[in-house]
C-alpha cells in the first residue's frame, strides 16, 4: 500500500526546494524576499489543495487495492476450498473405483475358479463316459464276433446242405427245361433221353484255375458232339462261361461240333451275343 506524506512534510519539502532554487538564481534578484515568501505561501495553498486532492485519490486507490486484495483473498480461499473438495471427491472416487475393481477382480477370480471346476467336472464326466462307451463297444464287439462266428458256422452248414440240395434241384430243373423244350429239340432230331451230364475238371488250369470243376450236358450222335448249356434264364455271364467250358472240353476230349444254349428266357441283346459266338439258342414256344 502506498505511504502518504503529511501536510507539514510536504510544505517543508516545497520550501526547501524553493530556497535552493532561489539561491541558484541569487544573481538575478528580480523579487524581494517578502514577495518571494508570499509567492511561496500562494504555492503552498495550491500545493495543499493538490496534496489534499492527491491524498483523496490515493485513498480511493488504496481502497480499491484493498477491495481487490480482499476479493482476491476470498477467491483464493474459495478456489482452495473447491480444490480441497475436488481432491476429497477425487480421493473418494478413486477409493470407490479401487474397491469396485477389487470386487470385480474377486468376482472374476471366483468365476474363473467356478468355470475351471466345471470344466474339470465335465472332463471327468466325459472321460467316464468314454470309458463306459469303450467298455460297451468292447462288449458289443465281442457279441458281434460271437454272433458272426455263429453265423459263419451256420452258413458253412447251410452251404453244405444247399450244395447238396442245389445239385439235386438243378438236375431236376434242367430235366424240366428239357421236357418243356422237347418239341423244339425233336425238330432237330435230338432225343432228350440220350443227353448225358458230364463233369469236367481243369486239372492243369488250362482254361480255368487249377482243378476247377464244372459240368456240361453232352449228346454224342453218329460221332457228332453236341455241347449243351441248360439255363432257366440265360445272360452274358452264362454265355461267356459256356464258351470257356467248350474250350476246356476241346482240350480234354475234342472240339464240339455244335454249341447249344437251351433256355426258357433270354434278353434279345444276350441272344445276339450268343449268335455272334456261333451258339444255337433254343427258346420260344414250349407249350
Structural class, by secondary structure, is alpha/beta
What portion of residues is helical?
55-70%
Give me the count of strands.
5
* Major sheet description: 5 strands, mixed
Mean of all residue-level pLDDT scores: 82
Number of helical elements: 5
What is the beta-strand fraction? 5-15%
Low-confidence stretches: 153-165
What order do the helices and strands follow?
HHHEEEHEHE
Gyration radius over CA: 71 Å
Strand order of the largest sheet: 1-2-3-4-5
Total separate domains? 2
Distance between the termini: 153 Å
Name the shape in a single word: rod-shaped
Overview of the molecule:
Helix 5 links the parallel strand 4 and strand 5 (279-282). This protein has helices at residues 7-24, 33-180, 182-186, 236-252, 268-276; strands at 196-202, 212-221, 224-234, 258-266, 279-282. With 287 residues, the chain is α/β, with parallel strands linked by helices. Helix 1 (7-24) crosses helix 2 (33-180). It folds into two domains: 1-19 and 31-141; 181-282, 3-Layer(aba) Sandwich (Trna Endonuclease, Chain: A, domain 1). The chain is rod-shaped and about 200 Å long. The protein has a five-stranded mixed sheet with strand order 1-2-3-4-5, with helices on both faces. Residues 153-165 have low confidence and may be disordered.
Summarize the structure.
The protein is an alpha/beta fold and 287 residues long.
Which helices and strands, and how do they pair?
Blueprint: H1 7-24, H2 33-180, H3 182-186, E1 196-202, E2 212-221, E3 224-234, H4 236-252, E4 258-266, H5 268-276, E5 279-282
Parallel strand pairs: 3-4, 4-5
Antiparallel strand pairs: 1-2, 2-3
Helix pairs in contact: 1-2
Amino acid at each position: 500500500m502506498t505511504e502518504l506524506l503529511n501536510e507539514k512534510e510536504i510544505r517543508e519539502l516545497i520550501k526547501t526546494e524553493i530556497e535552493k532554487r532561489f539561491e541558484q538564481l541569487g544573481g538575478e534578484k528580480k523579487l524581494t524576499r517578502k514577495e518571494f515568501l508570499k509567492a511561496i505561501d500562494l504555492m503552498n495553498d495550491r500545493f495543499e489543495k493538490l496534496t489534499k486532492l492527491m491524498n483523496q485519490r490515493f485513498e480511493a486507490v488504496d481502497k480499491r487495492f484493498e477491495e481487490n486484495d480482499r476479493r482476491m483473498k476470498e477467491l483464493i480461499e474459495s478456489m482452495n476450498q473447491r480444490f480441497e473438495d475436488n481432491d476429497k471427491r477425487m480421493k473418494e472416487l478413486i477409493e470407490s473405483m479401487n474397491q469396485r475393481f477389487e470386487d470385480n477382480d474377486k468376482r472374476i477370480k471366483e468365476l474363473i475358479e467356478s468355470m475351471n471346476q466345471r470344466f474339470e467336472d465335465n472332463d471327468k464326466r466325459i472321460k467316464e463316459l468314454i470309458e463306459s462307451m469303450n467298455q460297451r463297444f468292447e462288449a458289443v464287439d465281442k457279441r458281434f464276433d460271437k454272433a458272426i462266428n455263429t453265423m459263419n458256422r451256420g452258413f458253412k452248414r447251410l452251404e453244405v446242405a444247399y450244395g447238396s440240395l442245389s445239385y439235386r434241384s438243378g438236375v431236376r430243373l434242367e430235366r424240366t427245361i428239357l421236357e418243356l423244350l422237347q418239341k423244339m429239340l425233336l425238330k432237330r432230331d435230338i432225343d432228350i433221353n440220350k443227353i448225358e451230364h458230364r463233369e469236367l475238371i481243369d486239372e492243369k488250369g488250362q482254361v480255368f484255375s487249377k482243378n476247377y470243376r464244372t459240368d456240361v450236358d453232352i449228346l454224342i450222335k453218329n460221332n457228332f458232339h453236341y455241347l449243351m448249356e441248360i439255363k432257366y434264364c440265360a445272360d452274358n455271364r452264362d454265355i461267356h462261361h459256356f464258351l470257356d467250358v467248350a474250350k476246356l472240353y476241346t482240350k480234354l476230349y475234342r472240339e464240339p461240333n455244335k454249341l447249344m444254349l437251351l433256355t426258357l428266357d433270354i434278353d434279345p441283346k444276350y441272344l445276339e451275343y450268343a449268335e455272334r459266338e456261333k451258339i444255337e439258342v433254343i427258346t420260344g414256344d414250349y407249350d
